[in-house]
Hints:
Blueprint lengths: L5 H11 L3 H12 L5 H8 L3 E3 L1 H9 L2 H9 L7 E3 L8 E4 L8 H11 L12 E5 L4 E4 L9 E3 L2 E3 L10 H12 L11 H21 L1
Parallel strand pairs: 3-4
Antiparallel strand pairs: 1-7, 2-6, 4-5
Amino acid sequence: RDIQASWYKQWVTELNQLIPLHFIQYVSVLTVADHQDALYQFLSSLTMELSWWQAEERLRSIPDVRKVLEQEELGLSEWAPLIGGKCFRILFHQPLSSPLSQTDLEICMDHISTNKFASTREAAVGRICSDFGKLVVQKAFCSDKACSRATFSISPCIKLFDESNATVALMLKVLLDAGQESKCFNTVIGRAILAETARRTSRGHLLDT
């Protein structure tokens, strides 16, 4: 059941050190390659899809999440009601050793627990942390049915999301420069950068009002 094999530890350790400058350089170089196959492979290599039990294990390892599940007799669910089409959202970015804010916790529970079946809220994406570094957890709709299965992926590229707004914007720009035919935003890391940029932009608009 444990994916903490030696290759996995090496993968996490190396990607923990990936900085935005190197990410931008790699994407820029690979963008000009024929068919951009190498670009898609590079971006895909930055994440790994989890099975449901692996995602559930990581979610239950968050003390605040486990406490709410026990107190309110909730269960985690890989299923999500299909409301308003596909959605990809960042829920939180916290080390496991640190408590979540009340807002982050409430949003998290509404999306990962059976609470979501009593509401009309969308599916989401969250970022959590393992022993090796912060990870991206993806929840995305997989079908056009009334209730659909979510998929989960992880990425240890922690330094890509801890940078200034300008740096995150540059990473988004280099992905956009790959062109309309690019598959950049078909990857988890591409969607995560887009979601992070949108979150920061939205927060900026709120501060301006």
